[in-house]
Amino acid sequence: MSLDLDKRQRAMLREMGIRLWQPQAVAAEVPGVVAPPDAAKVSVNAPVSPLTSAAPPTSAAAVAPARPNTATPPSSNAAHATAGNSAWTLGEARVLYAKPVTDNGQTAVLGAAARWLLLIETPPGAAEADPLSGDAGKLLDNMLRAAGLHQSARAVCVPLSRRADAATAGNAAPLDSALAELLKAEKPDVILIMGRLAAQALLQSTEPLGKLRGRTHQLAGVAAVVTYDAAYLLRSLPDKAKAWDDLCRAQHIAQQTGSAA
Fold first, then answer.
1. Residue 221, pLDDT above cutoff 50
2. Would you tell me how many other CB atoms lie within 10 Å of the CB of residue 216?
3. Residue 35 half-sphere exposure, CB side, CA atoms within 13 Å?
4. Strand, coil or helix: what is 19?
5. What is the pLDDT of residue 136?
6. Does residue 186 sit in the same domain as residue 226?
7. Shared-domain flag, residues 59 and 143
8. Confidence of residue 172 (pLDDT cuts 50, 70, 90)
9. Which of 28, 32, 151, 153 is deepest in the core (most CB within 10 A)?
10. Is residue 84 domain-resident?
11. In a domain, 102, yes or no
12. Which of 12-26, 39-53, 74-88 has the lowest average pLDDT?
């Protein structure tokens, strides 16, 4: 198959430095176009591109199109999961609102309250701090109270932090083992994961937080929602609205799961 190009198009290709291979009959008519001696022997099934600058193949083996590489690359997620599980550790679980109260200050009767598990990304060495202390803790408290968790839910917070000593990370217990024990003890209706790195480690994903949030994940069979950590929200106020949307999503899941039980 030959390309139906007029003389003006061929001249433009020559000006661009593109060599156009044509059968001898055509090349003889166009000044400056050189046809190889064996051009007529080239298979007509070979793909021809007007933008190629390489000489056409002259053998059947060279004419055959290259086969795509079907070898499966090693899973980056698997490698990430192995490294991530050993580099992270779960801290002590804390009940945020041990005595839920109503707006008038009376102790609330929870009954069959929704059970929340908050897995919050925490800097190394800060896992023992009160999760509701400091500016980030106050923001988190305001968010959870706005969602009504202080009145109608059992909220348990667990800090998730990277190990400061990388040398001990290789010998550490896998994160998923500790997580399985935590889920068995708490039996949460919904999990709220706060922080990009923590979310990637828990979900064994390399996707950015912008793609992880806004949808419901499954973490060991429990519905999980990803959002920004409070420390980040202090630095990026415009993302507070997105974090509120994530909190509302988790609240809806908790209500549905609690009512179904």
1. yes
2. 13
3. 17
4. coil
5. 93
6. yes
7. no
8. very low
9. 153
10. no
11. yes
12. 39-53
- Spatial neighbors of 231 by CB under 8 A, at least 6 apart, are 136
How far lies 77's CA from each of 74, 161, 170, 206, in Å? 9, 20, 18, 7
17 and 108 in a single domain? The answer is no
Residue 112 has pLDDT above 80, yes or no: no
Measured CA to CA, the distance from residue 166 to residue 33 in angstroms comes to 64
Neighbours of 196 (CB within 10 A): 20
Residue 98 has what pLDDT?
Answer: 79
| DSSP H or E segment with residue 251 | helix 240-260
The four Cα atoms 55, 59, 62, 63 give a dihedral, to 10 degrees, of: 80
The amino acid present at 126, given as its one-letter code, is: A
Both 53 and 95 in one domain: the answer is no
**Do 157 and 215 share a domain, yes or no?**
yes
* Residue 73 domain-assigned (yes or no): no
Domain count of the fold of the chain: 2
| Token pair for 77 | 């997620």
DSSP 53: -
The answer on 117 and 24 residing in a single domain is no
- Per-residue pLDDT tens digits for 194-218: 999 999 999 999 999 999 999 999 9
Predicted confidence at residue 130, as pLDDT, reads 84
Rounded to the nearest 10 degrees, how much is the dihedral formed by the CA atoms of 7, 12, 15, 16? -140
